[in-house]
Amino acid sequence: MELRQLTYFVAVCEELSFSRAAARCYISQSAISHQIARLERDLGVVLFERSTRAVVPTDATMRLLPLAKQMLSLESAIRATVRTSGHRIRLAANMSFATRSLSAIAGARAAHPDAEIEFVIKPFRQRITAVADGDCDLALIRGSVDEPGLAVEKLWIEDLVIATSAAHPLAPRDQVTLADLSPYPLLLPPEQEQVLLHNVIRAAFADLAAGPTLGPPIPPDHTATMELINRPDAWTVLYADSPTEGLVVLHLAEHRLRIPVSAVLRSDARRSPILTTLLSGLHRR
Questions:
Q1: Where do the HTH lysR-type domain residues begin and end (predicted)?
Q2: Average pLDDT over every residue of 149-157
Q3: Rg (CA), the chain
Q4: Phi and psi of 17, rounded to 5°?
Q5: Cα–Cα distances in Å, from 197 out to 162, 189, 272?
Q6: Is the pTM of this model over 0.85?
Q7: What is the reported pLDDT for 144?
């Protein structure tokens, strides 16, 4: 049994989908299925009843899940305990924050040549847990969290990007309004995976006579680019640093689609000079 297998196991339990768990863990669906099968062989039990429609945890899974979470929490605690303090910073984020983060990291290393700064890729919930457990010093998130022992520092406000295929009827326009977009299908990830994004869309359309026309959710193993190419009448909303190759970016006449980006830190965290410089770099536009 390996800790990574327990990580994948917890992800499948929480997502109830091998494809969503794979996307969350940044590996292929076949790889996560293989590792879960290995874990089942090692333990001599079936952990999930699989069908084309659902992934159902077994009784053995429900007994294993709290222990697996405890093991992963202990791993984070061990890493936090043995880490050298002062010169090493661990920043948890996802790839959409890479450009901004790496620029701030470069500035912090220039100001502190002895600094060790790691950029750690983690999905949203694991970022929060890593900070709470002390495994990471800060995490970048969109929106906010309200949890005991954690502090949230707003960094910047991000404009969301409207994207369509080149064949969309609005693609030739220099500017569009939300009213212009309303009749066309809006493609988004499922709401349970992007609650904040759906809330921003709802708030933006709240004062309009017609709300957005929601199309089918984007599956976790599909890309927005491919979905828009397959649906040239549709549009989507992307974060500012998302890849837009093959898409047309439309400028929104009203600047309503905006979202806050924040840093999450432990409330009792000591602000070392390196951490202070890194946060300053993240604040700077």
A1: 1-58
A2: 93
A3: 21
A4: -160, 130
A5: 13, 9, 33
A6: no
A7: 87
**CB distance 51 to 90 below 8 Å:** no
Burial class (CB in 10 A: 0-12, 13-18, 19+), 6: buried
Side-chain half-sphere exposure of 146, counting CA atoms within 13 A:
0
Structure tokens at 135: 């495994």
Distance CA(159)–CA(151), nearest Å, equals: 24
SS3 234: coil
At 122, is the secondary structure helix, strand, or coil? coil
Name the 3-class secondary structure at 147: coil
Q: Is residue 76 within 8 Å of 34, Cβ to Cβ?
A: no
Is the separation of the CB atoms in 1 and 44 below 8 Å? no
Query: Percent of the chain scored above 90 by pLDDT?
Result: 42
Q: Which residues does 70 contact at the CB level (< 8 Å), separation at least 6?
A: none
What is the per-residue pLDDT across 113-136, written as a single tens digit (0 to 9) for each?
888 899 998 888 889 988 988 889
| Contact predicate 18/12, CB 8 Å | yes
List % helix, strand, coil for the chain (3-state, nearest 5).
Answer: 40, 20, 35
DSSP 261: E
Closest CA to 94 of 56, 128, 120, 129: 120
DSSP secondary structure, 170-226, as one string: TTT-SEE-HHHHTTSEEE---TTT-HHHHHHHHHHHTTSSS--EE-PPPPTTS-HHH
User: Residue 81 corresponds to which amino acid?
Assistant: T
Q: Which of 50-54, 147-151, 166-170, 214-218 has the lowest mean pLDDT?
A: 50-54
d(CA 101, CA 120): 11
Confidence at 159, pLDDT banded by 50, 70, 90: confident
Q: Phi/psi zone of residue 246: left (φ > 0), alpha (ψ -120 to 50 degrees), beta?
A: left
Task: Work out the angle between the directed axes of helices 59-82 and 124-133 (0-180°, nearest 10).
Answer: 50
Burial of 185 (0-12, 13-18, 19+ CB in 10 A): middle
